[in-house]
Amino acid sequence: MKLVFFRGKVPNFGDELNLHVWPALLPAGFLDDDDSELFVGIGSIIGNHLPQKSRKFVMGSGYAGYMGLPDVHDGSWDIRFVRGPNTARTLAIDPNLSICDSAILLRAMHLPAPDASAGIAFMPHYESLERGDWAEACRLAGMTLIDATAPVETVLSQIRGARLLITEAMHGAIVADALRTPWIGARPIYGGHHGKWLDWAGALGLDVRLNPLKPTSLLEFYIGRTGRGGSLGKVGRFSASPLAALPNRALTAAAARHLSAMARLEPQLSSDARIAEVTERAQEAVDTFVRSRLAVS
Question: Which domains, and CATH codes, for the chain?
Answer without folding.
Answer: 2-108+274-296 (no CATH), 116-270 (3.40.50)
